[in-house]
Every structure is written in structure tokens, then in C-alpha cells.
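re: ur question from yesterday

yeah so i grabbed the chain u mentioned. its 306 aa long if i counted rite. heres the sequnce exactly as i have it in my notes:
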Amino acid sequence: MIPIALPYPSPSPAPVAAGAVLALACTANADKTPSAAPTKAAAPPTTSPASSPDARGRGILKAQLAALANDAAFIATFAPQATVLTPLGSNEVHAPNAGVAAAIAFMNPHAEIKSATFDHFTSGGNAKVAWFAAELQLTIDSHEPGSPAATAKHTVRAIELLDGAADWKVAVAAFTNVAQLYTFGTSPIKDPTAPGPLASFLLSPESLAGALSEGAVVFGTDPAERAIGTPAAKALLGRWKKLAITFDPKSKVHEVRTATYGYAMTNVRIVTKSGGEGYKANAFVLALPGAGNAWSVVGASYGALF
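ran it thru and got these C-alpha cells back, copy pasting raw so excuse formatting
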């Protein structure tokens, strides 16, 4: 199920209520009672393009990429107490010195962003929340003292949820790293909770596939492990069915379930064959509540660690 890059070479409305129009027609005879003309059918509600999940998501993501070197502007796209998973772990984005933007962009005091773009964008949502996913392409120039200038390119996959109750700002997001997997690495998870039904999806490709909503996305750690849409996502998860995925015993789980959305983030160990070594990754799942106590997964992502 998981995107796994091995250490050896591995085989991308405001509904406008239209009121009914009532026209009264009078006859030429004043002594006849006026009769109502046929009522015109109400036009179906429409969604303003500016308030669609696609437009909201693209607007937020463009603002985030433009602000990767401006922490205050980057943070402004997030709701209060928003939680973000990055290649270096999870954090509350508004916490002092959280450094979320720097972690996403692999920045250091001697580096600068040469370019930051995105592609493979997809989105969805309802009247209360919107979500989107995309692949970020980052080019970073580094000028370490005493060393020649160097340029590095990174691919990061984003899944984010916008909360209408928070003025359509980001309530939770995951930015996972596309790179080779190793048996080491760390990704501290803040504010641990007990594992719940969402975290369990991250351990079972089969269960995750069964919970996917229409249009869901699944991301792995390999460049080719990008599945957008339910058929593609199920196909990718089917290729992961022989992987043994467990919680990293040294890590924690952070799971949140609300009336309008839910998510879980943690670190996992992935074993590709019986008796083999366990490769480390961080993992994230985003879901919306369905009928009964069911959850409908809109996005899941696994990221390589350092």
C-alpha cells in the first residue's frame, strides 16, 4: 500500500436563491377577478466560482508558496491551532518558532528559494469544509560558508483541509516528502492521543481502500506513487497489500475527529518482505464523516524521513 522507495533503485456556494416570480395579469374587463400567471420555475442554486473548493484551495496554496520565506504571511493562511505534518514532524503552526514553512521547503539560514510551483492539483468538499491535494516542486539554492553554491530540487506532496467555520483557512495539513526510504529517521508527533479508527487505516491498505471516497487521493514516497481519483487510489493500494505496516514503537499518534472532518498522523514502519528490515515513514489520513459512524477518506499520504 505504501509508497515505498527502497534503498536500492525503485522500480506523480453561495447558493443564489432565485425567488419565484409571480406575475398578475388583469383582463380588459375591470369586473373580472385578476388571475395569477403561471409561476416561473426557480433557477437551481449556483456556486460562485470564487467559493468553490478548487478556487479556495488554489488561492490558499498559491499564497503559501509565495510566503515560504515569509513566516508571518505563511502562517496567516492557517486557522488558529491548526496542526501541520512536515518531513520533520508535526507542530501547531502558530506555536512560537514552529518553523513549519522552513521545514516544508528544506530551508536553512544559508538557503533561498529559487522556485516553488505545484501541479497535479485536485480538490473536493461540501458546504462546511473544502480539501485539496497537490504536488509541490521546490528548487532551493544553498550558499554554505566555505562551500560552493549548491542547488537542490525537492518534491513534496500536500493534503490540506479548509474549515468554513474558521473563515476557510487551513485547519490541518500534511506535507510529505518524496524520497528514498530508510530504516532510520525521526518525525516527532506533538499532542499525542490514543489511536482511533482513522489511524488504523494507515496500517492496512485493504481497509484504506475500502474507506475511500469518490475522488480520493493516495500518495506514497516514490515519484510514481501518486494516485488521484478512487480507481487509481485503489489500484495503488492494491500494489501495497503485501506490505506489513505497523506503528513505529518509538512514535506517537495524533488523531482528531470532529463533526465535520477527522484526521490522523503518525510514524510507521514498513516491511517489504518477511523477516526484512522496517523502513520508516510518516503517515497522514484525512476523512469526512459518513453515514452512521463510518468515515470517508479523501486523502492519505506517506512521506520519507531523514
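noticed a couple things. Confidence is low (pLDDT under 50) at residues 1-46. also The radius of gyration is 24 Å.
anyway ttyl
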